[in-house]
Amino acid sequence: MTSSQGITLQNASVTLGGKVILSGLSLTLSEHRIGIIGRNGSGKTTLLRLLAGLIPPTTGSVTIDGLNPTDRKAILPRLGILFQNPDHQILFPTVAEELGFGLRQQGQTEAQAQRAVTTLLAAENRSHWAKALTHTLSQGQRHYLCLLSILLMQPATILLDEPFAGLDLPTQTRLARRLSAVPQRLITITHDPATVSACDRVLWLDQGGIRADGPPDTVLPAFTAEMARIGEHDADTDLAD
Ligand SMILES: Nc1ncnc2c1ncn2[C@@H]1O[C@H](COP(=O)(O)OP(=O)(O)OP(=O)(O)O)[C@@H](O)[C@H]1O
């Protein structure tokens, strides 16, 4: 696994469709477990896309280990993304082809990639998955497959977008256990305080800016209290934006 300093934003802003979505973010994300929390529409997905180099900053800069994240080839060994919807990630008909693709992208031969896939599936007690058709897996299984694809590529940092959304409790527990054991830096984006309660650092994103940044036992009670306060007012005034 490549060693990593982390992701740095310097006065980064994103404007989409004439609207400022993220403004003036200056951060260095280097802790082992980082949570980014915010309510619907606060800018979480936009921030994930910015951190991953999927959109450029409108102003300011973003670097991953000092590199420009839009340089996909350089970023591939450094950053993996687990999207909320596995169907946005899975490209191939079979599990083995899906798992092998990233390794081929990293320059391994077909034979090397298939060996690595066979070894991983055996270690995961899922050798029977190799020839399985990806579209016949359940949502939770497809999510797990996407995580395995990322882990095979051994990036230093993994971005997770609402990793437990739509998964039943046993699947959530299994995925949480698997994630807690990975050596990678994890940056988890969610609206759910429980998902980031064990992080080293939590950032609360509100209306495209950082409202609080600190340990979970400081940030999460403040976030939860504010969500309860907003929930007591029935009009979702933000939809008028
Ligand atoms: N391409 C776009 N053009 C204009 N506005 C956009 C665009 N993409 C997102 N937005 C707006 O940016 C704001 C933040 O959106 P974003 O999807 O980043 O929020 P989020 O925190 O991920 O929300 P959710 O939890 O509901 O997924 C919203 O007001 C949204 O309408």
TrEMBL record:
InterPro entries: AAA+_ATPase, ABC_transporter-like_ATP-bd, ABC_transpr_CbiO/EcfA_su, ECF_ABC_transporter_ATP-bd, P-loop_NTPase. CDD domains: ABC_cobalt_CbiO_domain1. Gene3D superfamilies: P-loop containing nucleotide triphosphate hydrolases. The keyword 4Fe-4S does not apply. Residues 7-232 form the ABC transporter domain. The keyword Oxidoreductase does not apply. Belongs to the ABC transporter superfamily. One of its GO terms (molecular function) is ATP binding. Keywords: ATP-binding, Nucleotide-binding, Transport. This is Energy-coupling factor ABC transporter ATP-binding protein.
